């Protein structure tokens, strides 16, 4: 195992077991559960995560599943996996490679084995290695029986048989009983890593409230797995990973989509406005629609529209009426929404547009992650149609990013693009639950009286008379007396908002809309630079979900005695006001992205800084070790004095 | 006079802003004159365009609803007809091509205190916006859709539209159009619209009557208004407008009255052997066999059969209200769900954020 301070701390568990087992203390572990889509690996992973979270480890997860709901059983395309990294210290990524791989069938083994470093622990369900299943994935001989797995610590467990034995008296048929083998596996892992079990028992009772027989069977399988670990000779060692030191407070485990949805509910509460979500289902954004549809008691209205266009259009309509309009989608949906986004830019109404990016172009890789919609968010509309762009950096950060997007939308009366991605959406981490009173105050004042006078002195309302500081236009909602006005997509005359085809006016309005968005920089604070040594000459700049891998890479670099600065952008439009100056401080700037260099193109264009782009579009997050190697090469070629390699290897 | 009941605005900043505006502006004024609905914007339709008469009819009619003008919103798409909101002293949004029903849905579903109207054209509603139209109709959101059908694309200077007759020669179809047209009324009924009517731009009385019934209807109302585009499709409805041929070819729909029409009531509508409807000569059939118009039939197939009587060249065109049936509205049901959720679990943000399994790290 890749740990630094393994130490045997105890030699017995104290219970009357037939032989003595030892307990090894680790500082971190990466486990990957892999099986068929029908094996319930995501559920198992989520449960193990919850147990780990409530135990107090820091953690980060990477679910990885196929786009097909049920690809043919036992085939490579049908493999679904869940990776969990947990530690006794603060970590930033789901781990580059697993230390432990659990493979529920030959397909899962074949698809994942190459990621398991030599010597890693490999647990397989031996029952599934039948000639038929082996043939499905092209194994000529059974790898459990030939010597092809010699390089790993292989543990054969007849998971299916053991589960069926445990459920012999459950009254369930074989097929049904077999389904609980994921819970047996979870029980075994819970024993191996000393996880608390009450949460899972409670979860199963809740989940199968209406099917007590199934609940009982799952709980029995879970317990049987745990007891099997305790008694079997196959596992002589169990592992202890101490809780991570965390700031005092109350915590929960949260995924990015969940955090984003809660951020929107919070924005509604903190602004006092009703929330209206217009959305059309699309992976990986649908969970936000699902989550928000459960919070009607907060005045949240969710509308499953007939398409993406109706989703945004209905949200614009609701915003016109004084709601916080929100629409959630992924890249293909943003394409459909482009024209309506232009309307929101022109009508200057608040709107939060969430793009949970996935692999593209077209339908692309629906369940995989990518950051390739940045330029679409920036420029994907006809005309000069600037809009602010905000991105969260981690699953829990989606909460704060949603509030920030709402703040900008409401303050500046503009559509705001919130760029999450598939990795953030489905990944999870512990979240310190904020004090609601400390969340930003988002209250708005609707216009309720005339703001100008006509030539003959009569008071009138001018819908495009701007706030001198923010350049926001007044938000007057239908129902307010004396404020009737018409807005739309045709060019507006400055101040009055009447239709205008005047050349000078169009030039002015185009520049005003741009100036309004640029002006947001005044409200966002300086660039976030992390350079603990204070003497870095190389900076790594990123945005969105690459925060974790870049951060972990920077830690490795620093442990090797080198200095490096990490710059991470929450705001991609406008950039922080000092960004150009900050970038020019460094000899070299590296920009890793999960696209072909979209942020680096923007930075180069705007600041004339020779940003070096490092890109990858594999549908998966960067590996910290790979990034560290890239950054280290740049540092060494800059300083000319290569230092020793990272002494701590893979630790974060 | 008040025939239309509006709901209440949501408590909070929306209701507060409305209350503030009333402090400075005085009471809501529901007694309006047509001129109160006019704006200072110069109307820019071609002289003689049917849109003018519709605008006048609407401005004369709306005051009868007893709704203050600040409580009315007109949302339109793109097209000549969609310029309508600029000429109405209400709230308005001239949006993008085809999307007005979706925008209006978001507004109506979140603001029960407003009277929301959509103005759209045959291209806007049936071509680019066809999807939104049918889904809005099936949901039965409380909004009124006025579809100005001139059977042509006016604003883009005269291409054929989804309601143009087959063989129409236009700039984009020099040898005649090939596609079969939609009958908007049939389409709406196929989407289970709860209210469907049809009127003629120049028939102030008939148009006002259909508008009145549409306004009183709770839910989505589709009103097809035949509108003459004197520039690109002049005379498209002359067959029905001409005093002699009009009587011959239009079938006035009056709820509870037998469907008899034509000079001296010479023609009538009877059931055919397949359960549909057909035209007959009144003196050739038993008086009892003549269909008595019933707009309130739950089953839309009767209204659909009525809509199928007319041909592409407008012979046998029923005019009036085809269907008007009560059905719960989407916005009301949505509000009820919010209310129900509120009563069963009052909003507590702190509790929501701390939902699920939590743990505490001590200081
Ligand atoms: C996305 C988009 N595509 C095309 C157009 C061009 N366009 C404007 S109006 C129109 C057709 C309007 O026809 P109709 O709805 O019948 O309205 P009318 O002008 O006849 O009242 C078209 C094609 C547009 N404005 N936007
Ligand atoms: S083009 Fe036709 S529809 Fe458009 S304004 Fe002129 S007459 Fe009216
Ligand atoms: Mg038209």
UniProtKB/TrEMBL annotation, chain A:
| Bilayer-crossing regions | none
UniProt KW Cell membrane keyword:
no
Q: Which InterPro entries match?
A: 2-oxoacid/accept_OxRdtase_asu, PFOR_II, Pyruvate:ferred/Flavod_OxRd, Pyrv/ketoisovalerate_OxRed_cat, Pyrv_Fd/Flavodoxin_OxRdtase_N, Pyrv_flavodox_OxRed_cen, THDP-binding, Transketo_C/PFOR_II
What the entry lists under CDD domains is as follows: TPP_PYR_PFOR_IOR-alpha_like
- Please provide, alphabetically and separated by semicolons, the GO molecular function terms listed in this UniProt record: magnesium ion binding; oxidoreductase activity, acting on the aldehyde or oxo group of donors
Q: Which UniProt keywords apply?
A: Oxidoreductase
Enumerate the spans annotated as Pyruvate:ferredoxin oxidoreductase core domain.
536-601
* Annotated ranges, domain Pyruvate/ketoisovalerate oxidoreductase catalytic: 38-227
Q: Give the domain of life.
A: Bacteria
Q: What is this protein called?
A: 2-oxoglutarate ferredoxin oxidoreductase subunit alpha
Organism of derivation? Geodermatophilus poikilotrophus
From TrEMBL, chain B:
Keyword terms, alphabetized: Oxidoreductase
A Pfam family of the record is TPP_enzyme_C
Q: Which Gene3D superfamilies match?
A: 3.40.50.970
Does Oxidoreductase appear among the keywords? Answer: yes
- InterPro entries associated with the record: 2-oxoacid:Fd_oxidoreductase, THDP-binding, TPP_enzyme_TPP-bd
The residues that cross the membrane are none
Identify the SUPFAM superfamilies for this entry.
Answer: Thiamin diphosphate-binding fold (THDP-binding)
> Its GO biological process terms?
cellular respiration
Its protein name is 2-oxoglutarate ferredoxin oxidoreductase subunit beta
Organism lineage string: Bacteria, Bacillati, Actinomycetota, Actinomycetes, Geodermatophilales
